[in-house]
UniProtKB/TrEMBL annotation:
PANTHER family: SOLUTE CARRIER FAMILY 2, SOLUTE CARRIER FAMILY 2 MEMBER 11-LIKE 1. GO terms for cellular component: plasma membrane. The keyword Membrane applies. This is Solute carrier family 2, facilitated glucose transporter member 5. Its main location: membrane. It comes from Calypte anna (Anna's hummingbird). It is a multi-pass membrane protein. GO terms for molecular function: D-glucose transmembrane transporter activity. GO terms for biological process: D-glucose import; dehydroascorbic acid transport.
Length: 235
């Protein structure tokens, strides 16, 4: 192929991840309610493993299309898990630790980027013979989660509000927070359940039309946009 076509293919390989992330994040709300937070995160590991296989064997098969498909699937998983992980971690944490627990996602992203850059060095896996291995390393965290997450309970809030399973919610709370009096937190969940009874799930269009969260939405949009324009990804 010509030099222009090679540049186009590389650009597509890089940018297709963001398109997959958009698709994954837009479907996260539906999947998290349909399957539950825990099952949704377990389900999201399978596209990751498939993407690792596609990218890892793309060099043997001589197919750049497998790279594109693998990056797309990896992006879908990233969009799904980033949204659902925040929900699961926040809903499983006690009130006093909820803010600190939510921050762990940003910390994990920063650590993941650092590990990715380190593995991509020429002295590690960033050479012609080993780059397929580098592209397949996202299978490792997926396998770790598949092996460990089944031992954790589902989100207490999901069990109580979406599944109407108060007994399961009590069991999950005891497993996560230990023995003790947690009725105040459960009463808050019950009050929330009563407050949203009969309300339909809000769509993306409803979010943009809701004046109650407009300034929060504008603030988040500006912060995220400025982060992309600062050049931090290039650094």
């Amino acid at each position: 192929p010509s030099e222009e076509m090679i540049t186009l293919m590389w650009s597509f390989v890089v940018s297709i991840y963001s398109i997959g992330g958009l698709l994954g994040s837009m479907s996260a709300g539906y999947v998290s309610v349909r399957l539950g937070r825990k099952k949704a995160m377990l389900f999201a590991n399978f596209p990751t493993l498939l993407s690792a296989a596609l990218m890892g064997f793309s060099w043997l098969c001589g197919s750049f299309e497998m790279l594109i498909a693998g990056r797309l699937l990896s992006g879908v998983c990233g969009g799904l898990t980033l949204s659902i992980n925040l929900m699961y971690a926040g809903e499983c944490a006690p009130w006093k630790l909820r803010g600190m627990t939510a921050i762990t996602a940003s910390t994990a992203i920063a650590v993941g980027k650092f590990v990715g850059f380190a593995l991509g060095l020429r002295e590690v896996l960033g050479v012609e013979a080993l780059w397929p291995v580098l592209m397949a390393t996202n299978a490792i965290p997926a396998l770790v989660q598949l092996l460990t997450l089944p031992f954790f309970p589902d989100s207490p809030r999901y069990l109580l509000i979406d599944k109407k399973d108060k007994e399961g919610c009590m069991k999950a709370v005891k497993q996560l927070w230990g023995d003790g009096d947690h009725m105040a937190e459960i009463d808050d969940m019950v009050a929330e359940q009563e407050a949203i009874r009969g309300e339909k799930t809000k769509s993306l269009c409803d979010l943009f039309r809701d004046k109650g969260v407009r300034w929060q939405l504008i603030t988040l949009f500006l912060v995220c946009s400025c982060m992309q324009l600062l050049g931090v990804n290039m650094v």
